C-alpha cells in the first residue's frame, strides 16, 4: 500500500505504475489474443483512415504536379495571340520581350488544326510549328528526343501515341490535310502534302502524345500560306510562378492589338477543379479517422465497464481519481499512436510503389485501373507533401486523444463502495 501511494504521487505526468496498468488493460485476456477485439478494430480503423488519407492526398498532389510539369514543359508560360490575321513583326517583338527579367526564351509559333492520314488511318491533329533552334528551348521535347533529325527542311515530329495508333515509325510519310486551301473558281480546295517523320517524342501525357505534330516554322509558313507571319508567340519563364510583372510588361510592349494570357488563366478551370476535388477528398476521408476515433470511445467505455471491480480495488488501495484518468487515457492514446504509426508506414510504402501496385491489380482483375486516355497521364503519380503528412498525423492523434478523455473521466467517477458491495 505504501509503495502504491508513492507511485501514484510520482512527480512525472505518468508514473510507471500507470503505464503498467494501462498496458495490461490494452492487452486482452489470453483467450482473445494480444489485444482485445474492440481495441483491435479501433486500431485498424485509425490505421486504414490515416493510410487512405495519405494516399489520397499524395495522388491528388501527384496529379497536379505531373500535369503542371508537363503542361509547363511543352506550352509557353505566357502566350501572345493576334486578334486579326497574324503577327508580322514577331522578330521585333521577340527582341523587346527578351529584355524583360525572368524571361528565359521567346518562341514564335503557328498553331493550326489539320487532318493527318497514313494508309487507311485518318485522325485529327494539332500542328505546332517551331523553328529548330527554338525547339531546343521546349523542355519536354528537348529532354526526350534527339533533335538533330529535326534539321531536315520538311521533317516533322509526332507523338508516341499517334505513332502507335497509326502504325508509324521514323522516316514513314504522314499526310497533312488542311481545309483552308487555295481559292479556285469551284471554291476552296483542301491543302494536302506529305511529310517524312523525323522523330517521335514521348511527353507522357496522352493529350499531347496522340494529337500534336511539330513541324519547322518556315515549312509551316509555306503550308499555311503565312509567309513572314505567325499566329502566336510563346514565352517561357525562369520561374513560372513569378508571372504578374511579366504579364504587365508584355502587355505594355505588344499593345492593344494582341491578347496576352498566362498559363494560370489558360488552365484555371482545370486546376481549380483539382483543388476543389482534393479539399473534398480530404474532408471525406478525414471522416474515416473521426469514426475510428469514436470507436476508441466505445471500446474504452466497454473496457471501463469490464474493469469496474479492478478500478474499485485500485481506488481502495490508494489510487487517486487522476491516476485512474491517466491509466485509461494512456490506453486510448496508445491505440491512436499505434494505429497512426502503422497508417503512416502503410501510406508511405503504398505511395512509393503505387504504380507497381496498380499494374498488379490491373493484371489480377483484368481491368485498366488508370487509362491514359481518360486521365491524361501515362502512369499513376503520387507525391507526398511533408506538411500535409504532419497535418494528418496531428489530426489522427488529436482525434485519438480527445476520444480518450470522456471514458477516462467516466472511469474516475466510479464509486468503489457501490461496486464492491455488488460484487
Write a structural description.
The chain has two domains: 2-67 and 271-422, no CATH class; 84-256, no CATH class. Helix content is 57%, strand content 18%. The chain is built from 18 helices and nine strands. The chain is elongated. The protein starts with a helix and ends with a helix. The model is unreliable at 1-12 (pLDDT under 50).
* Biggest sheet, spatial arrangement of strands: 2-3-7-4-6-5
Low-confidence stretches: 1-12
Order of helices and strands: HHHEHEEHHEHEEHEHEHEHHHHHHHH
Number of distinct helices = 18
Give a short overview.
The chain has 423 residues and is of the alpha+beta class. It is 57% helix and 18% strand.
Secondary-structure blueprint of this entry?
Blueprint: H1 2-8, H2 16-26, H3 37-74, E1 78-82, H4 90-97, E2 103-118, E3 121-129, H5 132-135, H6 139-144, E4 156-159, H7 160-166, E5 173-184, E6 187-201, H8 206-211, E7 212-215, H9 217-223, E8 232-237, H10 244-254, E9 258-262, H11 263-266, H12 268-306, H13 308-316, H14 321-352, H15 354-365, H16 372-375, H17 386-412, H18 416-422
Parallel strand pairs: 3-7, 4-6
Antiparallel strand pairs: 1-8, 1-9, 2-3, 2-5, 2-8, 4-7, 5-6
Amino acid at each position: 500500500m505504501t509503495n502504491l501511494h508513492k507511485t501514484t504521487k510520482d512527480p512525472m505526468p505518468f508514473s510507471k505504475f500507470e503505464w503498467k496498468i494501462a498496458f495490461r488493460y490494452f492487452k486482452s485476456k489470453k483467450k482473445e489474443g494480444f489485444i482485445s477485439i474492440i481495441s483491435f478494430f479501433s486500431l485498424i480503423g485509425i490505421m486504414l483512415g490515416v493510410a487512405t488519407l495519405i494516399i489520397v492526398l499524395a495522388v491528388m498532389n501527384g496529379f497536379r504536379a505531373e500535369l503542371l510539369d508537363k503542361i509547363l514543359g511543352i506550352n509557353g508560360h505566357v502566350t501572345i495571340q493576334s486578334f486579326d490575321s497574324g503577327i508580322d513583326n514577331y522578330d521585333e517583338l521577340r527582341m523587346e520581350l527578351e529584355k524583360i527579367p525572368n524571361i528565359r526564351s521567346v518562341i514564335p509559333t503557328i498553331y493550326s488544326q489539320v487532318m493527318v492520314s497514313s494508309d487507311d488511318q485518318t485522325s485529327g491533329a494539332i500542328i505546332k510549328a517551331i523553328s529548330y533552334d527554338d525547339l531546343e528551348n521546349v523542355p519536354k521535347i528537348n529532354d526526350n528526343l534527339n533533335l538533330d533529325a529535326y534539321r531536315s527542311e520538311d521533317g516533322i515530329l509526332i507523338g508516341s501515341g499517334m505513332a502507335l495508333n497509326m502504325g508509324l515509325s521514323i522516316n514513314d510519310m504522314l499526310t497533312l490535310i488542311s481545309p483552308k486551301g487555295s481559292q479556285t473558281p469551284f471554291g476552296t480546295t483542301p491543302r494536302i502534302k506529305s511529310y517524312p517523320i523525323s522523330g517521335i517524342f514521348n511527353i507522357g501525357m496522352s493529350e499531347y502524345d496522340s494529337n500534336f505534330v511539330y513541324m519547322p516554322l518556315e515549312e509551316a509558313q509555306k503550308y499555311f500560306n503565312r509567309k513572314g507571319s505567325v499566329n502566336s508567340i510563346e514565352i517561357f519563364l525562369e520561374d513560372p510562378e513569378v508571372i504578374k510583372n511579366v504579364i504587365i510588361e508584355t502587355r505594355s510592349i505588344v499593345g492593344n492589338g494582341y491578347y496576352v494570357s498566362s498559363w494560370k488563366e489558360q488552365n484555371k478551370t482545370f486546376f481549380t477543379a483539382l483543388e476543389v476535388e482534393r479539399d473534398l477528398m480530404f474532408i471525406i476521408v478525414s471522416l474515416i479517422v473521426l469514426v475510428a476515433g469514436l470507436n476508441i470511445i466505445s471500446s474504452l467505455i466497454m473496457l471501463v465497464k469490464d474493469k469496474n471491480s479492478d478500478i474499485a480495488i485500485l481506488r481502495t488501495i490508494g489510487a487517486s481519481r487522476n491516476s485512474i484518468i491517466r491509466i485509461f487515457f494512456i490506453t486510448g492514446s496508445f491505440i491512436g499512436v499505434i494505429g497512426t504509426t502503422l497508417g503512416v508506414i502503410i501510406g508511405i510504402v503504398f505511395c512509393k510503389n503505387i504504380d507497381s501496385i496498380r499494374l498488379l491489380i490491373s493484371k489480377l482483375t483484368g481491368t485498366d485501373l488508370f487509362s491514359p486516355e481518360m486521365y491524361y497521364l501515362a502512369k499513376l503519380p503520387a507525391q507526398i507533401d511533408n506538411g500535409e503528412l504532419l497535418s494528418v498525423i496531428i489530426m489522427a492523434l488529436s482525434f485519438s486523444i480527445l476520444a480518450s478523455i470522456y471514458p477516462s473521466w467516466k472511469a474516475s467517477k466510479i464509486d468503489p463502495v457501490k461496486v464492491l458491495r455488488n460484487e
